[in-house]
Specification:
By secondary structure, this protein is mainly alpha-helical. It is 68% helix and 0% strand.
Amino acid sequence: MTHDHSHHHDNHNHHSHDSSSELSFDEKMVKLLEHWIKHNIDHSETYKDWAKKVTANNMDKVNLLLNEAADITLKINNIFEEALKVIKANQ
């Protein structure tokens, strides 16, 4: 099975010895949360695309499950967005 988009999961260990270019912990968290939100949107769209494909192949139950997974993925973003609000309110 192919995966139709690339993942770039690194450990965020890249650093510079120039301390003025380093992000604060809060800034790192904001960047991570924003990345996870985008990533979840991409996954949700992929699940919905496949839900349409399985319907065309008479897999109605699978369609429902994939759409449910897409919805749950977007609900996770609500939690990430709330975390972003908390961080930004404390900056």
